[in-house]
Design brief:
It is a single-pass type II membrane protein. The chain has 13 helices and 16 strands. By secondary structure, the protein is an alpha+beta fold. Strands 5, 6, 7, 8, 9, 11, 14 and 16 form an eight-stranded antiparallel beta sheet that branches. Strands 10-15-12-13 form a four-stranded antiparallel beta sheet, with no helix packed on it.
Length: 369
């Protein structure tokens, strides 16, 4: 729309200009008095706008229109998705059945727990998650995962008894009970450099055991003999905020590890304590896509880890890497005066799982999916 000047006398204008000492205000008032609406001006303005639109480049207009349509579609697609519900550690612990034992473990039967849930539709669920991932991103690099999901039942049932992951087996991965430090050299060295920091935070936590049998945040695991306690910072890919606040430096350290599994249900980080006389029954881990790392914090004599029939001892301030999808057990047969065996446990990616596969597995096995 366009303003057109009104006819006013010179006297009126002078009177108006003298009402204020501010020149900017004077000009604004004069402009308001000198202009008014005009239908003719409105028509000219619309005609000018239409002509400008016609003069624009057709290719540019088409590109802008396509981008607008894509943006509207994206907003609609994202808005349709239901928010994801995440399982909490407390719900897993409260729903556990103390009478449901298998290989010395208590299975919680929570529908959200990928390890403890036993149902025939798991393979279909995993394949659906893989298809959803491929639609959003790409099928590129998904050959092994697709093969593993398609033939998961055969892999799990036909595996030799020495290695039987309970949930997911990724085919064609090099397999061995123990891995050298070179497999994840950066993260091993980083953990060992921060050994004293982790140990100090553990000793602060452990003082609470003198006041009560099981302090808040600790979990007691089922064992044939003795006591096995764990203090989780991350449990099945889900952070435990209250525990992380008690070990802030250790929790921050996890963010510096290059290969830490922090975004799917196979990722854990915890302090594991075995009291003298404890034996952990032989059992299998849920998958072969990870390497379990134990950083020795307190390592009394007569403590051993046996993986695939091969025994190893922990060393204070040193990392021990192993594949927990192999049948494994641990025990502490040292004297009571030597105290508990304590390790900081972290799950790292198997070095032969490619970056594209890691991204897809994080999506497929995201907590609560």
């Amino acid at each position: 729309m366009v303003w057109v000047p009104l006819r006013t006398t010179r006297t009126d204008r002078l009177a108006l200009l003298c009402t204020s000492k501010n020149s900017f205000t004077n000009m604004s008032l004069e402009w308001l008095l000198d202009w008014s609406w005009s239908l003719d001006g409105l028509r000219d303005f619309i005609a000018t706008g239409i002509q400008s639109f016609r003069d624009c480049d057709t290719t540019a207009l088409t590109a802008v229109a396509c981008l607008l349509v894509l943006f509207v579609w994206y907003c609609y697609h994202v808005g349709r998705e239901q928010p994801r519900t995440y399982v909490t550690v407390n719900s897993l612990m409260q729903s556990s059945d103390p009478n449901s034992l298998q290989n010395g473990y208590v299975y919680c039967h929570s529908p959200e727990c990928v390890r403890c849930t036993r149902h025939d539709g798991l393979n279909q669920k995993l394949y659906h998650n893989l298809q959803e991932y491929a639609k959003r991103y790409s099928w590129s690099g998904m050959g092994r995962i697709h093969k593993g999901i398609r033939e998961q039942g055969r892999y799990l049932n036909s595996r030799p008894s020495i290695q039987k992951p309970e949930v997911f087996f990724l085919p064609d991965l090099p397999t061995m009970p123990y891995f050298s430090r070179e497999a994840q050299k950066h993260d091993v060295e980083l953990l060992e450099r921060n050994f004293q920091t982790i140990l100090c935070e553990f000793e602060t936590l452990y003082k609470a055991f003198s006041n009560c049998s099981l302090p808040q945040g600790w979990k007691m695991n089922s064992t044939p003999s003795g006591e096995w306690f764990t203090f989780y910072l991350v449990n099945q890919g889900t952070c435990v905020p209250r525990n992380c606040r008690k070990c802030p430096r250790t929790y921050r350290l996890l963010g510096s590890l290059r290969t830490y599994i922090g975004n799917n249900v196979f990722g854990n980080a915890c302090i594991s304590v075995l009291t003298p006389g404890t034996v952990i029954a032989e059992h299998y881990g849920p998958t072969n896509i990870r390497i379990r790392c134990h950083l020795g914090l307190k390592t009394p004599s007569n403590c051993e880890l046996v993986v695939g029939g091969e025994p190893q001892c922990w060393a204070k301030g040193r990392c021990l890497l192993f594949d927990d999808s192999f049948l494994h057990t641990a025990f502490h047969e040292g004297p009571p005066e030597e105290g508990p065996r304590v390790v900081f446990m972290v799950d790292l990616w198997h070095p032969n799982v490619a970056a594209a596969e890691r991204q897809a597995l994080d999506f497929i096995f995201a907590p609560g999916r």
